Amino acid sequence: MEYSTAEMMAVAAARVLKNDDVCFVGIGAPSVACNLARLTHAPDITLIYESGTIGTKPDVLPLSIGDPELSETALTTVSVPEMFRYWLQGGRISIGFLGGAQIDRFGNINSSVIGTYEHPKVRLPGGGGAPEIASLCGQTYVVMSQTRRTFVERVDFITSFGYGTGGDHRRRLGIRTQGPTLVVTDLCLLRPDPQTKELMVTSIHQSVTREDIAQRTGWLIRFADTVEQTPPPTETELAVLRDLHARTERAHTGKAMPHAGSVGGGV
Amino acid sequence: MTSFLSLHDAIAEYVHDGASVAMEGFTHLIPFVAGHEIIRQQKRDLCLIRMTPDLIYDQLIGMGCARKLIFSWGGNPGVGMLHRLRDAVEHGWPHPLELEEHSHAAMANAYAAGAAGLPCAIFRGYQGSDIVGINPHIRFIQCPFTGERLAAVPAIRPDLTIIHAQRVDRAGNVLIEGIIGVQKEAALAATHVIVTVEEIVDDLRVPSPNATVLPYWTINAIVEASGGASPSYTHGYYRRDNAFYTAWDAIARDREAFLGWMHEHVIATGPDTKLASPPN
């Protein structure tokens, strides 16, 4: 069965999630992976979005972090301060699932600026929930397309701390959680070296070569002693993923009216 | 005490040039019509506060209302960047915009501290993040009991908070439900509060003893504005217009297209006010 590299990335990211995980979900690729996991092998996974929705089971992928589907299908919806204080800071979340614009060899993520902060070449959206998701979830998984622009030697700005300069840098800052234990891309899976914490390739997707990966990484990439081959998507995984995207597409098109709002009248 | 005002009068009375204004609503219940009236009344030099500036602050910034933005995530959710915000930061158009940038955890805590009457919020955060280096308001303190190093940010105490809600009874008590975001904290942290609502009702129909209700004596002005959160949404009333959020990317990308859209759909529609049904 034919499939795209984006589909391989979504499937590979979904597979690492377990039925008993409590997962803080970012919008975009993380949300695809988490819901694919829920619709395949992990039906009881607890998905949490920072808008305050706990145990949400959306039928279509939300465009935003606070779409109606999220609260309508959630077990409960709490306020945003409660979400960040009791649930995230309180240590109740096992997995944080993040994306970003840039990542470096030690898993630090930039989602703030390309260039300098004062005079950015590109101003990006910023941190949102990510800085504390990265430091307060039990561990984090990252899902990102791999190119020389996104996988860089040093990120321009550390929005969300991974392993800093490597080794025990997290512990020296008083961070007690594990950090980015897995990075899923459209080419491969990367995990940190147990000592140096440098990301290295541990599994390569079908029909991808080591040269492909080296060419699309902005630093001299290392490969683990034993590198596995990622099994291709199964027919079930692909069918569920494509259904999900098709339902989402249908739900998000339709009305696109100019909005000036209406005041006073119950139109 | 609260008054039922027209949109025009509420904005004219409570939004002053140079004021700090928080218009909250986390994706849900974003007070769009109130923002549009601020644009029509050409308010200037505002310090705009919002966790997620969203399209409404993209519009206010692009129309020249803002001097400063306090925020934690400045994108068009699921679509991309806010191009008017980006143009102001990268090119100073229509004029330079001062940024005070935080994380969501910091802003949520800072609103809660404001509501609690505390001078600052203390939380475990910003560890290892470069945001600390670009925002002098992020500091660290030591826990007096454990010695743990914790982040501290000033409480947010806006001159004015504007929120949108489902409904209000004739006494002025407001019900908010669905994704409630930081609206309760933002309202209780502010000096003045305006609430726009979908409808004014005889019976608030409070669904549970634990529902989120703001008593009338915490609110200064109530404005009836059905559809007032569109193109965001009001739980129980209408859906989020995701197609419009996607379409905004092309509108906002180009200065002329943006100005044309704003004149046609916001400026030319104003003042667009009607006196809300008076209580009793």
Please explain how this structure is put together.
The complex is a heterodimer of chains A (267) and B (280). Chain A has one domain: Glutaconate Coenzyme A-transferase (3-Layer(aba) Sandwich). Helices cover 27% and strands 21% of the residues of chain A. Chain A has helices at residues 5-15, 29-39, 68-72, 80-89, 130-136, 169-172, 210-215, 235-252, and strands spanning 22-25, 46-49, 53-54, 76-77, 95-98, 102-103, 109-110, 113-115, 120-123, 139-143, 180-184, 188-192, 199-204, 222-229. In chain A, strand 1, helix 2 (29-39) and strand 2 (46-49) form a beta-alpha-beta unit. Chain B folds into two domains: 3-103 and 156-267, Glutaconate Coenzyme A-transferase, CATH 3.40.1080.10; 104-154, no CATH class. Chain B is built from nine helices and 15 strands. In chain B, a hairpin with a 4-residue loop joins strand 11 and strand 12. The longest helix of chain B has 13 residues, at 255-267. The model of chain B is unreliable at 272-280 (pLDDT under 50). Classes of the chains: A alpha/beta (267), B alpha/beta (280). Chains A and B meet through helix 3, helix 4, strand 9 and helix 5 of A and helix 2, helix 4, helix 5, helix 8 and helix 9 of B.
Quaternary status: heterodimer
Mean pLDDT of chain A: 93
* Percent of sequence in beta strands of chain A: 15-25%
Shape of chain B: globular
Mean pLDDT of chain B: 95
- State the domain count of chain A: 1
Share of residues in strands of chain B:
15-25%
What structural class should be given to the helix and strand makeup of chain B? alpha/beta
Q: Under CATH, the topology of the largest domain in chain B is which?
A: Glutaconate Coenzyme A-transferase
Order of helices and strands of chain A: HEHEEHEHEEEEEHEHEEEHEH
Helix fraction of chain B by DSSP (H/I, runs of at least 4): 25-40%
